[in-house]
Amino acid sequence: MIKIGLLGCGNVGHIIATHAESIRVAAVFDILPGRAEELAALCHARPYTDFDAFMREDFSIVVEAASVDAVRIYGEAVLRSGRDIIVLSGGALADDEFREHLVEVAREAGKKIRIPSGAIIGLDNLKIGQVSPPSRLLLRTTKPPASLGMTAEARTEIFKGLAHDCIKQYPKNINVAVALGLAAGRDADVELWVDPAAERNIHEIFVEGDFGDIYVRVRNVPSPDNPATSYMAALSILTLLKNLENPLVVGT
Ligand SMILES: NC(=O)C1=CN([C@@H]2O[C@H](COP(=O)(O)OP(=O)(O)OC[C@H]3O[C@@H](n4cnc5c(N)ncnc54)[C@H](OP(=O)(O)O)[C@@H]3O)[C@@H](O)[C@H]2O)C=CC1
Ligand SMILES: O=C([O-])CC(=O)C(=O)O
């Protein structure tokens, strides 16, 4: 059974810990002691607020479900310790210099940085963009005001531009756009909308290229404990973990 270290004891951390059937959560880490202890008790793991002590525990992979900052702070140390890392806050990799450095560290250590599909569908075959670059790659995200931590009277576009700029302004809401770009091999265009009539976190993906065109719409149920995060993101990590050691690999 794969043993994981969970970095981040918030909403996704809870879903992973309470649905961990094919994996064992050996240790959990968070800035706040109360959060780490509460989650550890739920899944019979050891709680840590000291990162070095957390890293001395016995696990082979770290699951990051914390923040863009956490990836920047701890990513390198995880890889250098000889563990793979699953990065949900993939927005951290929008910074070219940081991403290239982290990838180089992973290469030297013989370890992997895995970015799950998270709150969207289809990162697997969007990788065709690395072979045949898309002429259009747009993510239109619409969230209810609560998911964006704001109020709004009417549907309003609050950002239009490139993913690597959007993630700086909305690091808790648009990691998917950076993941999309990393898969397809070019920075995605992003429109971010707040809509008081929306009840779900909606991601619409538009792609055009030599192959034809794609339109995908994902209407995600917000997580009960953090409406910014779609419930699907936690399921995506659980699924990635469940398949890690499966010899049959489905998807590009
Ligand atoms: N790629 C994708 O598709 C998606 C990515 N995400 C991202 O996944 C991450 C987790 O989401 P979610 O669980 O809902 O978020 P939560 O805010 O509910 O939980 C994150 C937890 O990690 C803690 N944390 C943050 N930074 C650090 C740090 N530097 N060191 C230790 N602990 C830290 C937080 O503490 P505190 O509250 O004190 O900051 C909090 O307890 C977020 O970054 C989110 O944006 C979410 C959905 C989809
Ligand atoms: O969960 C979502 O809908 C997307 C999200 O928050 C992110 O990508 O950071």
UniProtKB/TrEMBL annotation:
Source domain of life = Archaea
Q: EC number(s) of the enzyme?
A: 1.4.1.21
What residues bind NAD(+), as annotated? 119, 175
Q: Where is the Aspartate/homoserine dehydrogenase NAD-binding domain?
A: 8-116
State which pathway it belongs to. Cofactor biosynthesis; NAD(+) biosynthesis; iminoaspartate from L-aspartate (dehydrogenase route): step 1/1
> Sorted alphabetically, which Pfam families does this protein's record hold?
Asp_DH_C (PF01958), NAD_binding_3 (PF03447)
> Top enzyme class of this protein?
oxidoreductase
In terms of InterPro entries, this protein maps to: Asp/hSer_DH_NAD-bd (IPR005106), Asp_DH (IPR002811), Asp_DH_arc (IPR022487), Asp_DH_prok (IPR020626), L-Asp_DH (IPR011182)
Print the keywords alphabetically. NAD, NADP, Oxidoreductase, Pyridine nucleotide biosynthesis
Q: Which residues form the Aspartate dehydrogenase domain?
A: 153-237
Q: Which reaction does it catalyse?
A: L-aspartate + NAD(+) + H2O = oxaloacetate + NH4(+) + NADH + H(+); L-aspartate + NADP(+) + H2O = oxaloacetate + NH4(+) + NADPH + H(+)
- Active-site annotation: 203
Tell me, what does this protein do in biology? Specifically catalyzes the NAD or NADP-dependent dehydrogenation of L-aspartate to iminoaspartate.
UniProt lists the family membership as follows: Belongs to the L-aspartate dehydrogenase family.
Any remaining note in the record? The iminoaspartate product is unstable in aqueous solution and can decompose to oxaloacetate and ammonia.
Q: Which PANTHER family match?
A: ASPARTATE DEHYDROGENASE DOMAIN-CONTAINING PROTEIN, L-ASPARTATE DEHYDROGENASE-RELATED
Q: What's the protein here called?
A: L-aspartate dehydrogenase
Q: Which organism is it from?
A: Methanoculleus chikugoensis
| Record lineage | Archaea, Methanobacteriati, Methanobacteriota, Stenosarchaea group, Methanomicrobia
